[in-house]
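Structure in, sequence out. Go:
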């Protein structure tokens, strides 16, 4: 749907088996089938939750790489961060809103099918522990969506509620400070949940707490990285004196360069034209598979997009992520400066942070040297 790939992690099968086993113990084969169907229905709601995030993100111009369903929930992998706090707010709210909508629809259906009195009677609660039936499935999925909506709105970054919290804080505090505050709150809540889970023997709660704690730490690290990139341009991260290859060079020569230099990407040049690029990892994999005498031209990446040397490095990083890490060709008014990849961005950020710590210049000095005029 909308070009969004939905992948299911192999460990999801363990959750289906667990659901089947829990119901199968008390109700036999019929219960086992019911348990498996119930788990699949609940994870379908999780997939719709993530699809809600993804469709709103696409509507706001943010690409979505994939949706991954895990035993502890789902993840929508966006190509880049939302441009504004309002966009982040809308994307974050979209997921829980889908669960609320599903719960409302199922409630309305229940009222029509069973009558209003049924929802207020003990039969509603009894359905949760009843034998496998359509009513039990309906009530379980309805309440499951309510739990999903409420749980995801807990203000613990990187959960949806934490992203909403950060988006609201961004308006008065700015993105960096808002992330620091939201990450701190998220780690406190996650740490408390993990500790409670360990003390009470709730393994799933402890795992979720640990997952959220690490996610908040990653959000904090990402905010620091983006702060380090502030003011840097694409040309600041490119080495114009980088080693280049020719299409007639063999992989053996490329491997020597790859092993002797820290360079991650190699431009493949013929005369005054850049024909493509090849990465260090591509070279090493290709040598093992094809041998050292295959020409570089046979495996180089030909689909190179260009970026202006004056483009902000944070924007370049987002473009690289959207392209799956494939390098970009950096061009200045004087010609092609070189290639830039994620390793180059990370190195420039580290250098900028070091310069800031020692009280030096606020940005790296950009060279206008070119590899192709």
């Amino acid at each position: 749907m909308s070009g969004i790939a939905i992948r299911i992690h192999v460990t999801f099968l363990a959750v289906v088996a667990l659901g089947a086993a829990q119901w199968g113990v008390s109700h036999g084969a019929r219960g086992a089938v019911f348990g498996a169907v119930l788990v699949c229905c609940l994870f379908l709601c999780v997939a719709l939750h993530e699809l809600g995030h993804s469709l709103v993100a696409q509507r706001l111009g943010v690409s979505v790489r994939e949706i991954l369903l895990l035993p502890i929930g789902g993840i929508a992998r966006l190509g880049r961060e939302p441009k504004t706090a309002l966009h982040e707010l809308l994307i974050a709210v979209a997921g829980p809103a889908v669960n609320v909508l599903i719960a409302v629809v199922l409630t309305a259906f229940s009222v029509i099918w069973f009558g209003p009195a049924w929802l207020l009677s003990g039969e509603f609660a009894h359905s949760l522990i009843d034998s496998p039936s359509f009513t039990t499935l309906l009530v379980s999925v309805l309440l499951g969506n309510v739990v999903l909506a409420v749980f995801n709105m807990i203000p613990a970054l990187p959960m949806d509620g934490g992203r909403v919290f950060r988006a609201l804080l961004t308006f008065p505090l700015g993105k960096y400070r808002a992330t620091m505050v939201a990450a701190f709150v998220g780690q406190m809540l996650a740490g408390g949940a993990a500790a409670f889970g360990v003390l009470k023997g709730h393994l799933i709660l402890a795992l979720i707490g640990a997952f959220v704690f690490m996610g908040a730490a990653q959000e904090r690290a990402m905010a620091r990285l983006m702060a380090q990139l502030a003011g840097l341009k694409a040309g600041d991260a490119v080495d114009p004196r980088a080693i280049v290859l020719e299409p007639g060079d063999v992989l053996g020569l490329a491997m020597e360069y790859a092993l002797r230099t820290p360079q991650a990407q190699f431009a493949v040049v013929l005369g005054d034209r850049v024909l493509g690029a090849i990465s260090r990892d591509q070279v090493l994999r290709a040598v093992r598979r094809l041998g050292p005498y295959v020409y570089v031209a046979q495996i180089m990446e030909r689909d190179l997009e260009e970026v202006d040397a004056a483009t902000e490095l944070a924007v370049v990083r987002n473009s690289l992520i959207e392209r799956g890490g494939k390098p970009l060709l950096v061009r200045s008014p004087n010609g092609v400066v070189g290639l830039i990849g994620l390793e180059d961005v990370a190195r420039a950020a580290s250098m900028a942070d070091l310069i800031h710590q020692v009280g030096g210049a606020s940005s790296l000095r950009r060279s206008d040297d070119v590899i192709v005029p």
